[in-house]
Amino acid sequence: MKRHFSLFLLAIGFDLYWLLVVMFRERGQLLWLALAILACILLPSAYRLYALLLAVAGGGLDVLWGLSGLIHFQGAAPLPLWLMALWLMFAAVWTRLTYSTTLPGWVLALIATCGGPVAYLAGAQLGAMTFVQPVPVVMGAMAAGWLALMLAFHILMGKRQ
After folding, report:
1. Exposed, middle or buried by CB within 10 Å (0-12, 13-18, 19+), for 27?
2. pTM of the predicted model, to two decimals?
3. pLDDT tens for residues 102-124?
């Protein structure tokens, strides 16, 4: 029961972090990045590379969606610093969740496939980004991207059952 409660607290903590990052974006980006780096450092060393690979791949998806004209983030950079921090924190939390839970990898991938695009929709409502194409088109592309990302991640981590 203690493990379930700690995973619940981890999820709530990430949700609070996500909300603060999306609401305050550039106004706290060095803090967001420092917290994400700390979360990654606190992972067992055997899992840090997985988290870094997930963060880079996720950021790459955002750049791809931006370059393809699906979404737009304010500013000149294709991937804002606050979003890089958000990806690193997500990757650290997701990696910890993956090696701590008994849920099969396909269930975790399905959760992320649904939750990821919904987070972007909420972020757009909070003004963090703009959907350039119709919402169903963007959400469909994001769901496909998240599914591919999560399946690859869980296979790489060996969470296949």
Report:
1. exposed
2. 0.92
3. 888 788 888 999 999 999 999 99
Q: Are 159 and 105 in contact (CB under 8 A)?
A: yes
Residue-wise pLDDT for 31-49, tens only, equals 999 999 999 999 999 999 9
- Asked if 156 and 109 count as a contact pair (C-beta separation under 8 A), the reply is no
Q: What residues are paired with 14 via a beta bridge? A: none
Per-residue three-class SS string for the chain: CHHHHHHHHHHHHHHHHHHHHHHHHHHHHHHHHHHHHHHHHCCCHHHHHHHHHHHHHHHHHHHHHHHCCCEECCCCCCCCHHHHHHHHHHHHHHHHHHHHCCCCHHHHHHHHHHHHHHHHHHHHHCCCCEECCCHHHHHHHHHHHHHHHHHHHHHHHCCCC
Distance CA 84, CA 12 (A): 20
Give the domain range for residue 1: 1-160
Nearest Cα neighbor of 95 from 10, 2, 4 is 10
* Domains: count for the chain: 1
